Automatic annotation (TrEMBL):
A single MF term (Gene Ontology): molybdate ion transmembrane transporter activity
Segments crossing the lipid bilayer: 20-39, 60-82, 88-110, 176-195, 207-223, 229-250, 262-280, 286-308
Protein's recorded name: Uncharacterized protein
UniProtKB keywords: Membrane, Transmembrane, Transmembrane helix
Protein origin, superkingdom: Eukaryota
Any one GO CC term of the record: membrane
Keyword Membrane attributed: yes
Gene3D superfamilies, sorted: MFS general substrate transporter like domains (1.20.1250.20)
InterPro entries per record: MFS_trans_sf, MOT2/MFSD5
SUPFAM superfamilies on file: MFS general substrate transporter (SSF103473)
Amino acid sequence: MYAILYGGACVTKHFGNMPVLMIGRFLGGIATSILYSAFESWLIFEHNTRGFSENLLGTVFSNAALGNSLIAILSGVAAQFVAERFGYVAPFDLALSILLIMAVIIMNTWPENYGNEKAPVKESFQKAVKDIKEDPNVLCLGLVQSLFEGSMYTFVLEWTPALSRASGDISIPHGYIFAAFMVSTMIGSSVFKLLQQYERPESFMRYVLLLAAVCLSMPIIAADNIVLVFGGFLVFEMCCGIFWPSMGCLRGTYVSEETRSTTLNLFRIPLNLIVVFILWQNFTMIAIFKFCVFFLFAASVAQHALFMRTENSPRHQKLPISVDEGENL
């Protein structure tokens, strides 16, 4: 279903018709929801069913994160290559080809499973809401996730006009730039492994969020300087690379296992509202980046509140954790 829906979204790019393109975005939205839930659920269920060690599951996710970054880099280069030769729609056709290959492999090699079909959805939703209301740690974590990811998704839509302006409206190689962003994300993942040997994520993420705010201020204070703007964007992507594994560790510590999926989806509601609000108002590019900087500063404040609440928590007496333990997390 993921391949079919996202394949349909790719096909709509051949039509210069707004309603058709909106249908494509609708299909892409459903497909993205499947991407971030069904594949992981399938993997965990199949892993447990086959009796594999729980420690190996952490290794799988760690390797998947590395593989995702590598494939993203190759995808950026490939997209730039076909776009230069066949036009800007060509990368979507390339993606469609890969989706078809993926669908054939899955249908012929993956056994079907449905997980727990009797999961109490209503009860899980109510408990997730209760956890957010009653546990300040979960609330702080949700604020950090929503504010950072809201800024990040806004950045995804604004980096092209920002770099175009800084370069003097000269055509920029989008695919190669995207590949550079993914390299920076990989570097950030490696930096996370170093940081966690000395500090808890609750602590060092405060400074990472502040650094991210400074990076996105470059289009505001140096809008016409391509070096500062592009350099700031690269460092921001490195902050993203630190953010993802850090949030995984924090969610594993503070969010209840039985309501984790529901809680994370609830956190995505304000995230999307932030992006919709900013774009709906048709603000200038500078104003949009000012909002992003404000949200990132606010996220650092929420992160500091989480740090202060948990600084002397008994569960952290053995931290900092080792690199191997971090990879398993």
